Amino acid sequence: MSMMDKIKQMLKGRESQVDRAIDKSGDFIDDKTQGKYKGQVDTAQERLKDEFGTGRDQQQPPPQS
């Protein structure tokens, strides 16, 4: 089992808390950098949510052949 699988398993059922933490940390970074990297921070937030947050629930599994 990879490290990513272990992290996902630990966070399972806590997707809303993960999303809030991602948003809060992104806002913190934007505040500290005075919004200089807002686009990159927003992209990172979206990718993290897709990987660990509620975006993971919305993804459809690939069809079985």
From TrEMBL:
Residues 1-65 are annotated as: Disordered. It comes from the Bacteria. Residues 1-34, 44-54 have a biased composition (Basic and acidic residues). This is Antitoxin.
